[in-house]
């Protein structure tokens, strides 16, 4: 599906690395870095009417391999940003985003990039950069964030802005909550999920005085559905509720599950925080079709009952968004992934929704999608 307004709004070339929080690494250790990607932005509307993207900036080593070792960037409370050397004969570098430790008893990975979050203020239509707030960047501050902070999602609930993020470390793959009174100045609230969970999305509104969220727990083992079930085993989008947005109870009913008969949901996960429409809660999510190492990421949508989001009233299995080679053509020298669009933010734009996505784990994409697309 194509849209009249669909463009890249922020690319790696727009990031000023002289203002990066990782600048001390380059000075102290003599390690040059570059912006591997500025992508997967959370999106919200500020009180001024402008939009705010919270962008994941993945800062990577220009020369990760040296002297027979590959190096990982890590934040340390005592030393700041440091490099950890791993012998090349102990790792697999097939996936361009990570390297895998081959002699571990479990699946163990490390990163040659470290992600931090950068607030980027946009015009009300999302099509012009107004300001890049380097002074308000969010960086690791705890050992459970030592490999970085990833994939923010922003929801506005009861006049407060809530942002979930994924904190990465050897300790755990945790979801951390930040809170804000203006959508621009954020404070660390707490860790809210400590199991491996990449996509926690808080609904933009209370249901019966409770916060609701979509979650996506991961694991290496999934139990099989019966052979005649319409579903297949694998990652699914679950639900949880909370009285305060800090302490969450999983719902007993399932949420969105991968369906048999389509490659679109061979793997699935949350995309944008659900927003309320006349037809129920609109949820944009990603489905992954197996291909090579990473797969093909596309965006799909579902409607959930306004009073009971565990009841899925409609799911469209025709892609809402797909990766756009036309948009990334000017950046082809920086491309390291194909076939990936990862939608992470949505706001109301009047007769359309303004949708923010990460394109190819490289850049931020803004798309205006008419509301008529979601009518059933």
From TrEMBL:
<keyword id="KW-0328">Glycosyltransferase</keyword>
<dbReference type="GO" id="GO:0016757">
    <property type="term" value="F:glycosyltransferase activity"/>
</dbReference>
<comment type="similarity">
    <text>Belongs to the glycosyl hydrolase 130 family.</text>
</comment>
<protein>
    <recommendedName>
        <fullName>Glycosidase</fullName>
    </recommendedName>
</protein>
<dbReference type="InterPro" id="IPR007184">
    <property type="entry name" value="Mannoside_phosphorylase"/>
</dbReference>
<keyword id="KW-0808">Transferase</keyword>
<dbReference type="InterPro" id="IPR023296">
    <property type="entry name" value="Glyco_hydro_beta-prop_sf"/>
</dbReference>
<dbReference type="Pfam" id="PF04041">
    <property type="entry name" value="Glyco_hydro_130"/>
</dbReference>
């Amino acid at each position: 599906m194509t849209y009249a307004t669909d463009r890249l709004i922020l690319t790696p070339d727009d990031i000023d690395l002289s203002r990066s929080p990782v600048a001390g690494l380059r000075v102290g250790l003599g390690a040059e870095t570059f912006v591997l990607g500025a992508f997967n932005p959370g999106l919200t509307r500020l009180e001024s009417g402008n939009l705010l993207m919270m962008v994941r900036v993945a800062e990577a080593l220009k020369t990760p391999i040296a002297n027979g070792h590959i190096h990982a960037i890590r934040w340390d409370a005592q030393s700041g940003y440091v490099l950890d050397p791993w012998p090349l004969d102990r790792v697999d570098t097939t996936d361009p985003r990570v390297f895998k430790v081959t002699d571990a008893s479990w699946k163990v990975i490390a990163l040659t990039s470290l992600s931090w979050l950068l607030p980027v203020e946009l015009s009300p239509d999302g099509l012009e950069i107004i300001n890049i707030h380097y002074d308000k960047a969010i960086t690791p501050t705890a050992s459970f964030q030592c490999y970085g902070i990833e994939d923010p999602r922003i929801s506005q609930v009861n006049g407060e802005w809530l942002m979930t993020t994924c904190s990465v470390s050897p300790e755990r793959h945790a979801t951390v909550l930040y809170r804000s009174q203006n959508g621009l100045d954020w404070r660390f609230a707490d860790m809210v999920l400590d199991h491996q969970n990449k996509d926690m999305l808080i609904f933009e509104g209370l249901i019966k005085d409770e916060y609701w969220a979509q979650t996506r727990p991961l694991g290496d083992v999934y139990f099989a559905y019966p052979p005649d079930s319409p579903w297949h085993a694998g990652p699914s989008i679950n639900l949880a509720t909370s009285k305060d947005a800090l302490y969450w109870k999983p719902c007993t009913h399932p949420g969105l599950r991968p369906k048999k008969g389509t490659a679109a949901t061979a793997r699935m996960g949350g995309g944008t925080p659900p927003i309320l429409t006349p037809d129920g809660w609109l949820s944009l999510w990603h489905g992954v079709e197996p291909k090579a190492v990473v797969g093909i990421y596309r965006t799909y949508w579902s409607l959930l009952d306004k009073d009971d989001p565990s009841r899925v009233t409609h799911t469209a299995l025709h892609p809402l968004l797909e990766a756009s080679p036309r948009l990334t053509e000017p950046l082809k020298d920086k491309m390291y992934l194909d076939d990936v669009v990862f939608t992470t933010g949505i706001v109301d734009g009047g007769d359309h929704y303004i949708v923010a996505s990460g394109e190819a784990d490289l850049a931020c994409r803004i798309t205006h999608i008419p509301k008529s697309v979601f009518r059933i």
